[in-house]
Amino acid sequence: MKFRNPPVLLFILSVLSLSIPWTTARTVSIDRFLQCLTKYPHPAHTIQESIYTPQNSSFQSVLVAHINNRRYSTAATPKPLAIIAAKNESHVQATVLCAKHHGLQIKIRSGGHDFEGLSYTSDVPFVILDMFNINSIDVNVADESAWVHSGATLGEVYYAIAAKTNVYGFPAGICPTVGAGGHFSGGGYGFMMRKYGLSVDNIVDAKLVTANGRILDRKSMGEDLFWAIRGGGGASFGVILSWKLKLVPVPPKVTVFNLTRTIEEGVTDLVYKWQTVAPKLPKEVFLRAQPQVKNIDTKGNKTVGVSFIGHFLGTSDKVVALLNESFPELGLQRKDCYEVSWVESTVFWAESPIGTPIEILLSKPTEPETFYKGKSDYVKEPIPKHVFDSIWKKMIEIEHIYLDWNPYGGRMSEISESATPYPHRAGNLFFGLYYSSWYDEGIEATNKYVRLTRELYDMMAPYVSKNPREVFQNYRDLDIGANQDNKTNFETATLYGRKYFKGNFDRLVRVKTMVDPHNFFQA
C-alpha cells in the first residue's frame, strides 16, 4: 500500500530548491533516536514511560487506540518505528529535535480522525508523536476563555466548559472523540457556525513547538504564523501544544429536533426548498439535511430518508413558529422538539438519545470500528430538483453512505475569505460531506466502496463549486491531488492547494517557507 503526502501547503520547499532529507532516513538507527530522547531534561515525567516500540507489549493497543479508519489499520499499513506518547512540553521538544537530528519524519496525532490516516502513516521511516496525554483544559469563565491542550477531545472540551458554566459554549464539531488539535488547526465547523463562525474564528492565542524546539505563543510567533495555524493545518508549521478559545454566549436552554422524511413522503421537494431556505434563516438556527439509505421492508428494498436535524439557540415555541412561517412544508411541531442545555445538545448531535448522561462525552474508543471514505463539496447555486433523483439512485446503489449538507449564511457570510486560511465563506448555500462506511474486510470491499463514492462525487461536478472545485482541509482527500513518493513539487501542490485554500494558498506558502525552511513538518 502506498501513502502519499497530504494536501497541505507544506510541499513548498521546492520553491527554495531544497531536497527533503527523509530519503536517507532508512539507514538511521531508531536506537540512536531513542537514546537522544533521554539526553534532554524532562521534569515531572521521564520520557522512557512515554516510549512505545514494536517490541513493547502495549505498542499495538496504543497504535490502534487513535486510529479512526480501519482502512489504515491493516497488516499492509506502514507502522511507526516508535510512538512517543508525550506527557509534557519537554517530551514534545525532545521528539522534534531528536527526529530532526536523526533524519526521521514525525507524524503528529491528536485524535486520529484524519480521513486518509495522514496523522499516523507515512511511506518513509517515521515516528508518531501522540498528543493524547497532553489533554488538560482550563476554563476561565470570568475571562470568557479556555486554554485547551491539543490532546483533549471535543467531548472533553464541552464537558469541561459545562462543568464551569451553563451560559457559555464553543462552536466546534459534533463528534466528541475528535481531537482538538487537528479539528481546530483545520478550521472546525459545527452546529453554531451560522451564529459564531468556525472554531478558528474564535481562537485568540496558541502555543506551539517549532522545528528548532522553541515554544512560541501568539505574541512571539507573530501574526502570520498565528494566522496560518488557524485553518491551514497546524501540523505543517509545528506541534500545537494548546489553544486559547474565546467562549461564546449560549442560552440556558436550546432546542434540538430531528425530523426524517423519505422519497415516498416527498422529501425531494423538501430538500429542493431547503437549499434556499436554510441559508437565510436567522443566525440562531442551524438546519442540517442528512440523506441516508434506509430499508423499506425486510425483503431488501431500499429508499432514501433525509433527516432534517435542527439546533436553535432559544426555546421550542420560537423555532416552531419561525420554521412554520419560512419552511411550513417541513411540518415541525412542538412535540418534535426537545429543550436541553447547550452541553446536552452536544450529546444529541453525537447521536445519543435525549437524556443520555453528559459523561458519555468522555468516552473514547479503543480501536477503529469501520472502514470509510470521505469527500467534501461546496454548493453555490441550488441543485436542480431532477438531480436529487439521480443522487438518491446512486446512494441506494452504494447503500452504506450518508451525506451531510450544512447550511451557510449568517456569520459565515460575514467573515472575509482571507481572515483565516479557511476561504469558504460568502457565496455558499451549503457545505457537503460524502461519507461511505463499511464493515466488510478485504481490498475488494474497499475498492468497491471507494469507487462508488468517487462516482457519486464525479456525478456532482456540474452542480458544485468550480475553478477550483473547493474542498475542506479537515476532510483531507488524496483523490484531489497529492505529491508522490514523499517528494515535494510546488506546481503539483499548487493545483490541489488552491482547492483547499483558494487565494490563501500563496500566503501559506510564504509562512511555511519562513518558519520551516527545511520542510521538517510534513503533516
Automatic annotation (TrEMBL):
Extract one GO molecular function annotation from the record.
oxidoreductase activity
Span of the secretion signal?
A: 1-25
Keywords, alphabetical: Disulfide bond, FAD, Flavoprotein, Glycoprotein, Signal
Cofactor entry: FAD
| Biological process according to GO | cannabinoid biosynthetic process
Ranges for domain FAD-binding PCMH-type: 76-250
Identify its protein family: Belongs to the oxygen-dependent FAD-linked oxidoreductase family.
Its recorded name reads: Flavin-dependent oxidoreductase FOX5-like
Supply the source organism for this entry: Prunus yedoensis var. nudiflora
The root-end lineage is:
Eukaryota, Viridiplantae, Streptophyta, Embryophyta, Tracheophyta
